[in-house]
Write a structure and sequence with these properties.
The complex is a heterotrimer of chains A (229), B (244) and C (234). Chain A contains six helices and ten strands. Chain A has helices at residues 66-74, 96-101, 117-127, 134-143, 159-167, 189-204; strands at 2-3, 28-37, 40-50, 54-59, 81-86, 89-90, 102-105, 177-181, 208-212, 223-228. In chain A, β8 (177-181), α6 (189-204) and β9 form a beta-alpha-beta unit. Chain C has one domain (10-232). Classes of the chains: A alpha/beta (229), B mainly alpha (244), C mainly alpha (234).
Chain lengths: 229, 244, 234
């Protein structure tokens, strides 16, 4: 299947005082991608081209390989054949070019039980070379409704709260490529609206996003393509 | 002349080649083996110091050489598998491990039976014996790791890394008799100096080495055919194949 | 595995090392109990042997280096799963692999934290246990020097095994099978150094070889471990 995003009829809404847009070379493309699990192919013949401001929503039943597609695009896993291009150049898994630009949030929240929510968030941000000040950290946690849990060890957080901690990074990151695996699963209605607004802001600045989800996420004023595996 | 180095790089094209080669090497192994054993057990003279017990050298030394050589070859295929991300290189590495392990075990076993009459003990912790034992455990580790990882491509890469980490051990085995004063004698056979053993003994050992080499290549090619068929099940070319 | 794991920028390497070291040490401080158990294991194993033997001082003195080294080895082996297992299960390892920071440096930081929490306590405790084995001062000095050089090697080589066995069946047994052949040379030279001193020869050649092994491991082990971590995340 080949996908190109359809241009939205409405003009794109602009957020107030956005940072300067990212360079137009921000493109994610995949050609004839296939993934294997064991002896059989999960999916094959996947082609896509996303330019600055485009988003791709991936849907499909459980077990069909959505997470695998996202991991291949993020450079975590090898594809059986086919290639992924970022900024025009072919990137192998774990390529530096991809690691510099990607923000990947997977199923498993990358939390250590012994650290508090705030410590986990600042640690993850520092790991990604986007260090957060204490103020930015509390603002980010407040944005995902975790202000009260900031100094609690991650061990005592509920499943939904655990999944929201890495999402807090979306509040202040400047990575051009977002790859999010079922981010809405941990969010209530207000949270989904916040996520949609963040995505819209990211796309308006010229970023690219690939999101897998079961529930619909409303991203106001953006070019969103859909793919069902 | 343009050589296509990747002509046989796909399992589909390699399978018939492996089948033919395996038969050829098996035949060569039988012929050379008979010749080598004839020289070693019948023609070569009795040793002045060790009597007839030394004759186990005709199995022990070739087996030890094969154990080291196969590990290096396995590491080579592993490097190719990691570098070029090819399935067949990983399958070759997978096929080499059991044969290498049996060669290492054979070397240790025959060495023990040689040690009893000559050194008075079945086992001593000298440098070469210990490092060959480590080699056997490295082989077993590669085999065990492959069995423990379900996803075949992931297992390929993990075993490739393990094989490359362990290859450091092979020069240690080889040079151990030079670096340490151990029970093992120094090398009697070298590429640069004249051999210090009788010509018939040397000839027997070299013929047996070639025989064991052909045997190992034949067995590995025979095993890799089974691995290809097992792992490529479900591929389009497998459905079109006429079983040999 | 065609992408480089190291950056040429020493600042980047240092920053990555510090991140991993600080985080793992912070976590270790909060799981002090676990570390205490591992140390207790080392003391227990080393204490078992004299119970089985006649209390002959000369015999104990000869046995001391071997027993202590094997106990150190087993303690290191026991602590290895702690290096990557929790990060792997929680998804942190994927975040680490996707970080723009050099992976070899991040992995080195984890190895350093592992040694500080496992190897260094062994080095500190060993002289006390060696005294119980009637070891002389010269023995103890060489034993401690050997352990100080060797336990980092154990942490580094062990990390390769720990990364390779992530997500594999077979648990601790498989890890031991993979890692012990790599440990054996360290054991031979470390215990051999003390044996040489007890025999009246110097322990310097053995310690020099251990130092060389440490340097080689410091270069090679992070690269191999990084490759293994990426493979485990497939």
């Amino acid at each position: 299947m080949t996908l190109r995003p359809r241009a939205s009829a409405a003009s794109r809404a602009r957020e107030h005082a956005p940072p300067p847009p990212l360079p137009a070379s921000v493109t994610l493309a995949a050609q004839d991608l296939a993934a294997r699990r064991g002896t059989r192919l999960l999916w094959q013949g996947v082609n896509l081209t996303l330019s600055a401001g485009d988003a791709l929503v991936v849907r499909g039943a459980n077990g069909v390989g959505k997470t695998t597609l996202l991991r291949v695009l993020a450079g975590l896993a090898h594809a059986e054949h086919g290639s992924v291009r970022w900024r025009g150049a072919i990137v192998a898994p774990h390529a530096q070019a991809l690691r510099d630009d990607v923000l990947f949030i997977g199923h498993a929240p990358a939390l250590r039980d012994e650290l508090t929510a705030a410590e986990n968030l600042t640690s993850l941000a520092a790991l990604a070379a986007e260090p957060m000040t204490a103020g930015a950290c509390s603002d980010a946690l407040a944005a995902v409704d975790l202000a009260a849990q900031a100094s609690l060890p991650a061990r005592v957080l509920s499943e939904g709260q655990r999944r929201r901690v890495p999402l807090a990074r979306l509040a202040s990151t400047s990575r051009p490529l977002w790859i999010l695996d079922e981010p809405a699963a941990a969010l209530d209605a207000a949270g989904v609206r916040w996520l949609g607004a963040r995505l819209a802001g990211h796309l308006a600045q010229g970023g690219v996003a690939v999101v897998s989800t079961h529930a619909p996420i409303d991203v106001p004023g953006a070019r969103v393509a859909e793919m069902t595996l | 002349m343009n050589v296509n180095w990747f002509k046989y790089a796909s399992p589909a094209s390699f399978l018939p080649l492996a089948s033919r080669l395996a038969r050829g090497f098996a035949a060569a192994a039988v012929v050379l083996g008979i010749a080598g054993l004839a020289i070693g057990l019948v023609i070569a003279p009795t040793d002045a110091t060790q009597g007839d017990a030394y004759r186990i050298i005709f199995i022990h030394v070739p087996a030890a050489w094969m154990a080291m050589l196969i590990y290096v070859v396995m590491a080579g295929w592993s490097a190719l598998a990691l570098g070029y991300n090819t399935r067949l290189s990983a399958m070759m590495a997978q096929a080499l491990a059991p044969t290498g392990a049996s060669m290492a075990f054979l070397a240790l076993w025959t060495g023990a039976f040689w040690g009893r009459p000559t050194w008075g003990t079945y086992w001593a912790w000298d440098a070469r014996m210990t490092s060959t034992l480590i080699l056997l455990f490295l082989y077993l580790g590669v085999i065990a790791l492959r069995a423990a990882i379900d996803e075949p491509r992931r297992a390929d890469r993990a075993c490739a890394v393990l094989a490359l980490v362990g290859v450091v051990n092979v020069p240690i085995i080889y040079f151990s008799v030079q670096w340490w004063n151990t029970l093992h004698q120094g090398s009697s056979v070298s590429l640069t100096a004249a051999p210090t053993m009788a010509m018939t003994m040397l000839a027997g050992m070299l013929v047996m080495t070639l025989a064991l080499w052909c045997y190992c290549i034949g067995v590995v090619l025979w095993r890799v055919q089974a691995i290809i068929v097992e792992r490529e099940e479900g591929a389009a070319w497998m459905a079109r194949r006429v079983p040999a | 595995m065609t992408d480089e794991v190291t950056a040429r920028d020493p600042q980047a390497i240092g920053a990555a090392l510090r991140w991993a070291l600080a985080r793992d040490l912070a976590i270790a401080v909060r799981t002090r109990g676990e570390l205490g158990v591992e140390l207790l294991f080392f003391v227990l194993v080393a204490s078992l042997f004299p119970l089985t033997l006649a209390p002959d001082p000369a015999l104990l003195r000869t046995l001391a280096p071997g027993v202590l080294w094997v106990a150190a080895l087993l303690a290191s082996l026991l602590a290895l799963p702690r290096l990557f297992a929790a990060d792997f299960a929680s998804g942190t390892l994927a975040a680490i692999a996707l970080s723009p920071r050099p992976l070899a440096a991040l992995v080195s930081g984890k190895m350093a934290a592992h040694w500080l929490t496992t190897g260094l306590p062994v080095v500190v405790l060993a002289p006390l246990i060696a005294l119980a084995y009637r070891a002389e001062a010269a023995d103890i000095a060489v034993l401690v020097a050997g352990l100080a050089l060797g336990t980092p090697i154990l942490s580094m080589l062990g990390a390769i095994g720990a990364a390779l066995t992530l997500g594999a069946r077979g648990g601790g047994g498989l890890l031991a099978l993979l890692v012990l052949p790599l440990y054996v040379p360290v054991l031979i030279f470390g215990a051999g150094a003390v044996g040489a001193v007890q025999a009246g020869l110097g322990g310097a050649p053995h310690l020099a070889l251990l130092a060389a092994g440490l340097l080689a491991a410091a270069v090679g082990a992070p690269l191999a471990t990084s490759a293994a971590v990426r493979i485990a995340l497939e």
